[in-house]
Design a protein that fits this description.
The complex is a heterotrimer of chains A (about 240), B (about 45) and C (about 230). Chain A has about 240 residues and is mostly helical. Chain A has helices spanning about 1-30, 45-70, 75-105, 115-135, 140-170, 190-235. Chain A has one domain (about 45-175, about 185-235). Chain A is globular, with a radius of gyration of 21 Å. Chain B has one domain (about 1-45). The model of chain B has no long low-confidence stretch (mean pLDDT about 85). Chain B is rod-shaped. Chain B has one helix and no strands. The chains are: A mainly alpha (about 240), B mainly alpha (about 45), C mainly alpha (about 230). Chain A: Keywords: Cytochrome c-type biogenesis, Membrane, Transmembrane, Transmembrane helix.
């Protein structure tokens, strides 16, 4: 059991490090500089990739929440938790890079644009989910409660997107067109290659962090169990 | 250009931060394991 | 289904009778919402004409803040004497507990709204010109959504020691789409703009209500098992 998992870890690591360097090379040197926005447009690659991973992590949380309702296991509980933690990190990155990009492109830190606000609310739901998990009590109880909250949160995200989109189009003119990247009229093929490569790299990073986090969390669990066993032994 | 620098600084800082948190957890684990081993040797 | 409804009404009646006797929660909620109005009148000068624009938002701020107080109590109060365990082991469907609590909270919050919204209009010297039926319909739809999801999360948060702090953190992000709809629809009705826009917001809110009611109704069983 231990051998293949260590092998997967090593393979991920071996893939991840060169992929990261290649994607950095692609972003900063290989891909062309956008004419209108200049060099700041290069934020876009990691911004989109982290946003993608943020949503991916969220759906992983939702998936394990549904499974946990069926039958709560420690494995599923840990996986949902680590995915949520990584989700918080990536959502924060998405928000901050989005704000910086907004500042450089449209000279404003924040616009009430549907995707931006959806990501912000996604962040709040993630944090609330982690708060639920921090509750005191047995893990079975927390597993059930957090699973229920995770599912409700998952249902909410698409509705938030729809509501905000509606709110914007009814009240304000849509200033920036349909997509953020469309001010240049679509994505150039070179940029698309870089973007796809970056998405792949960040997804690999997510998988790698996920495996590491799960491993550490499982070790923690084993140590805690061993500790309580020893304490019992000493007490008796 | 300054914005580009700022954005990537934030990205790397946050990723490093999370990896640091993971590392800290591992360190805490090591400490607890040491305590456990000490107990075992005392017995 | 009929049994669930009957049990739910029994639980709601119990809560409401209890409230009628003590008048603690409803009294607090009314006083609190009046105080919020007072604070807002300091924050935004009521004699200023532009303040009219924030009235729809204020209605919902008051409702949510005072509603949170009531929601916090609805499950915490059951923990005294371990009444919640009694409810759980009672030979009733867990969904009827949820339904009963929703009905009780809805009645409570509606009563508070019936007092606090006129107080708001009065203190801000706001003349109501909109269509009253549509206004009431919008307020009711949004309040139902708020209470459904609020009651559910109150039951969840009641398991934590710091449930009063946990509930708003859990509830507010989930309420955001409903609040966008509620504020927009209220604004449209109060400013007598085209009613068709308000209807589409109303549809969004109704869809939200139905979706979350169904989800909470089925998930409540797991919530009761878990706690």
């Amino acid at each position: 059991m231990k051998q293949p998992s260590a092998f997967v870890d090593r393979m991920l690591y071996i893939l991840l490090v060169p992929a990261m360097f290649v994607s950095l090379y692609l972003i900063f040197i290989w891909s062309p500089i956008e004419k209108q926005m200049g060099a700041s447009q290069k934020i876009f690659y990691f911004h989109v990739s982290t946003a993608w991973v943020a949503f991916l992590a969220f759906f992983v949380v939702g998936y394990y929440c549904v499974l946990m309702l069926k039958r709560p296991t420690e494995d599923r509980f840990i996986k949902a938790g680590i995915s949520a933690e990584i989700g918080v990190v990536f959502t924060t990155i998405t928000l901050l890079t989005g704000m910086i990009w907004g500042k450089s492109a449209w000279n404003t830190w924040w616009t009430w644009e549907p995707r931006l606000v959806t990501v912000l609310i996604l962040l709040f739901i993630y944090i609330a989910y982690l708060f639920v998990r921090k509750m005191e009590g047995t893990w079975e109880k927390i597993a059930k409660l957090s699973a229920v909250f995770g599912i409700i949160g998952c249902i909410n995200v698409p509705i938030v997107f729809m509501a905000i989109r509606w709110w914007n189009t009814k009240l304000h003119p849509v200033v920036f067109g349909e997509g953020k990247n469309q001010s240049g009229g679509g994505v150039e093929p070179d940029m698309l290659v870089t973007l796809l490569f970056c998405i792949g790299t960040i997804t690999l990073l997510y998988l790698f962090m996920m495996r590491k986090g799960i491993e550490i969390e499982k070790m923690r669990l084993t140590v805690r169990k061993a500790k309580s066993r020893v304490i019992e032994k000493l007490a008796s | 250009m300054g914005y580009l620098f700022m954005a990537y600084t934030i990205i790397w800082a946050l990723l490093a931060g999370y990896i640091f948190v993971l590392g800290k957890r591992q360190k805490d684990l090591k400490k607890e394991l040491k305590v456990l081993e000490d107990w075992k040797s005392e017995q | 289904m009929k049994i669930i409804l009957a049990d739910a009404l029994t639980i709601a009646a119990k809560d409401l009778r209890n409230e009628l006797k003590s008048k603690q929660t409803s009294g607090m909620m009314i006083i609190f919402s009046s105080l919020v109005i007072l604070i807002f009148s300091f924050a935004f000068d009521p004699t200023n004409n532009t303040v009219k624009a924030i009235i729809p938002g204020l209605i919902w701020v008051i409702t949510i803040f005072s509603g949170l107080l009531g929601l916090n109590r609805s499950f915490i109060s059951e923990q005294e004497n371990d009444s919640l365990t009694g409810l759980k082991v009672a030979p009733i469907d867990p969904s009827s507990i949820f339904l009963g609590k929703v009905v009780a909270n809805l009645v409570l919050v509606t009563i508070v709204q019936m007092l606090s919204i006129p107080i708001l209009f009065l203190l801000f010297d706001y003349k109501f010109h909109g269509d009253l039926i549509w206004f009431l319909l919008i307020v009711l739809t949004a309040t139902i959504g708020f209470i459904v999801i609020g009651t559910f999360l109150a039951a969840l948060a009641a398991n934590a020691k710091n449930s009063e702090m946990l509930l708003p953190v859990l509830l507010l992000p989930l309420l955001s789409p409903l609040m966008i709809g509620a504020v927009q629809a209220t604004k449209i009705v109060l400013e007598q703009e085209g009613i068709t826009d308000a209807i589409s917001w109303l549809q969004l809110m109704a869809a939200y209500d139905l979706l979350f009611f169904a989800a909470c109704f089925f998930l409540f069983e797991y919530l009761m098992e878990g706690s």
